[in-house]
């Protein structure tokens, strides 16, 4: 496969490629070991080098003063390989830096990027969030999933943060998030967390704590903005603390130890209820249990509960929920 040439990805204000400056360089999946064959016009705003074999930065990128987005995803960069970027002042206007799926062991120094909005170091070998204190307080999206992180730290200054992804790490405690007053999405699945502590945050709309060590739902009561809640694959035995979540649309409590559907009868917006792989023995009372969203509910999963083997299981659910579109894996057309 021939490496990309400037004319391959030339994008400007009109369709005349000869007169339009090149602003986007897409060199994904070329398996390049270096970038010697590629030109870097000073007009570049975005560079995507995903899925190559790069382990060092091309110094010509340091001159691209218009650069806003740089993706080095799925390469072979280690700490030394990305270190030079910390001194490339000409590209200090960078807004998005993606270092996902490389070989980093530490958070790189990104202190020169005063307008950084998106920072992604997921799928590396990072054991500590140390170094994030140097990142700009303009950050809106931070991704550190699939690493070896043991503690949530050095994020207190991210007042503008909207998305925090820390799934698949070694976290045991939810902490140091009280200043993230604009946080919309918090992803903490596949960790070792035993209890819910949202540090007083009330603005979160999406929360995932799947595959942790939870035995209780306590701690959600004040999160009245929640729209999506994912708590599957834990050890929860009772549904509680949900009655105040009046904006909840999606609730996933599958693969727990629940024997009853409780505390959601007044929720008016619920569309998806995932309750599969629990211990619900009967459909008796389910209409009352989901009364507030009986007309709204379109998807319900109850498979792998004892009640799913009862006669007329699907028919009964379709009678209870008039607008149901999916029961377990079965779809219905209206």
UniProtKB/TrEMBL annotation:
Gene3D superfamilies referenced in this protein's UniProt entry, alphabetically: Ribonuclease Inhibitor
One of the protein's GO biological processes: response to other organism
SMART domains assigned: LRR_SD22 (SM00365), LRR_TYP (SM00369)
SUPFAM superfamilies: L domain-like (SSF52058)
Chain intervals for the UniProt region annotation (Disordered): 1-20
Keyword Repeat included in the entry's annotation: yes
Cellular component terms (Gene Ontology): cytoplasm
Pfam families, A to Z: LRR_4 (PF12799)
Record's protein name: Protein phosphatase 1 regulatory subunit 7
């Amino acid at each position: 496969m021939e490496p990309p040439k400037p004319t391959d990805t030339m994008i400007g204000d009109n369709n005349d490629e000869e007169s339009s400056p090149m602003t986007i360089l897409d060199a994904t999946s070329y398996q390049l070991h270096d970038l010697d064959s590629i030109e870097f016009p000073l007009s570049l705003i975005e560079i995507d080098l995903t899925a190559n074999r790069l382990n060092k930065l091309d110094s010509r990128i340091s001159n691209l003063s218009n650069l806003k987005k740089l993706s080095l995803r799925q390469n072979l960069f280690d700490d030394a390989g990305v270190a030079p970027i910390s001194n490339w002042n000409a590209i200090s206007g960078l807004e998005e830096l993606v270092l996902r799926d490389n070989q980093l062991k530490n958070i790189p120094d990104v202190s020169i990027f005063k307008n950084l909005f998106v920072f992604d170091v997921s799928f590396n070998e990072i054991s500590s969030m140390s170094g994030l204190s140097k990142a700009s307080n303009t950050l809106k999206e931070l991704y550190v999933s699939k690493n070896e992180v043991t503690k949530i730290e050095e994020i207190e200054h991210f007042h503008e943060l909207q998305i925090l992804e820390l799934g698949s790490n070694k976290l045991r405690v939810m902490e140091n998030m009280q200043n993230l007053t604009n946080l919309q999405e918090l992803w903490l699945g596949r960790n070792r967390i035993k209890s819910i502590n949202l540090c007083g945050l009330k603005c979160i709309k999406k929360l995932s704590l799947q595959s942790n060590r939870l035995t209780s739902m306590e701690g959600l009561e004040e999160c009245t903005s929640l729209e999506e809640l994912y708590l599957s694959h834990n050890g929860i035995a009772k549904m509680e603390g949900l009655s105040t979540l009046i904006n909840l649309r999606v609730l996933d409590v599958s693969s727990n130890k629940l024997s009853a559907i409780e505390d959601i009868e007044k929720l008016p917006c619920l569309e998806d209820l995932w309750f599969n792989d629990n211990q619900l023995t009967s459909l008796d009372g389910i209409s009352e249990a989901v009364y507030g969203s009986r007309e709204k509910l379109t998807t319900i999963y109850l498979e792998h509960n004892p009640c799913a083997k009862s006669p007329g299981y699907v028919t009964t659910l379709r009678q209870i929920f008039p607008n149901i579109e999916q029961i377990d894996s079965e779809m219905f057309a209206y």
